[in-house]
Fold this sequence. Notes:
By secondary structure, the chain is α/β, with parallel strands linked by helices. The protein has ten helices and twelve strands.
Amino acid sequence: MGKLANYLEIYRYYKAIIDLNSVGKYENGGKCMVLDETPWVSIVMPSFNCEDTIVESVSSVLSQTFKDWELIIVDDASTDCSWKVINQLVDKSDKIRAHLNTENRGAGWCRNFAIEKARGRFIAFLDSDDLWVEDKLDKQISFMLKNDYAFTYTYYQRFDGNDVLDIVKSPLKTNYNRLLYSNVIGCLTAIYDAKKLGKKYMPLIRKRQDMALWLDILKDIPSAHCLPEVLASYRYNNGMSSKKIKVLSYQWELYRKVVGLGLIKSVLVFSVYACKGFLKHR
C-alpha cells in the first residue's frame, strides 16, 4: 500500500483515541482499542449481462494498492450467467457485496441502490466492463485529501478487445456552466466525497444519469478537479456509433426534463454539445 494507507492508519488511530465516547471503541477500561472498520471508499458497480467482463473489472479492484474499500455490485436482472459469476466473486472476498434485481430497472437505479448502501466516505464508480489501474484509488484519494477537493476525475484510456485506442484527456477543472456543454468527466474515473457533499444520487433516466449527477454536485461546489493521469480503461463499444440519434435524444431529455433548461437555452446548449460530439468522434 502507498503513503495514503499509512496516513489513514494514523488518522484512525488518533480518531479512536479522541473519540472516547463512541460505543465499541474501547474495552477493558480502555486497554483494548477497537478501530472503526468502516471502509474509506465505496465502489459502485452496476452490472447487466456482463459474464464475460466482470471478472476482469472486479480483479482490477482487488488489485488496488489501496485496500480500504468495499465493492457493491447491483445486477440488473441479467439474462446470462452474470449472477452466478458475481456470487463466485463474493465468495472470494468479504469486501464485495451484491444485490440482484428481480426486474430490469436501469443503471441509474442500480447505482443509486449501491450509493444508498455505501458506508464509505468516498463514492467511486466503475462499470462491470471497465478497468482501473492498480494505484488509482491510492493516487486519487491522496489528491483529494491533499488539496481538500470534494469531487475529482482523471484521464482514461479507451480499448477495444486487445486493441488500445486513444487516451481521453479532460480539462484540469470544470464547473457547472462548462459541463453543460460537454461531459468531460468519465464515470469510471469519478469520485466524490460524501462527507463534504452528502450522498448524491442519479436521476432515474435510462441514459445520461452520470452527467446529471455531476451537474447536481456542481450546483453545490465551484468546480471539479482532474488528476491528469491515465488511471482507468474504458471498454469501447462499436455498436454505439449506430445509435447516435437516440443518444442525442437522451441528451435533449436531460437538458429539458432533468436540468430544467428553457427552450432557447436548451437549443443553444444542445447545439454546442452536438457539434463537440461530432468533432470528437469524426
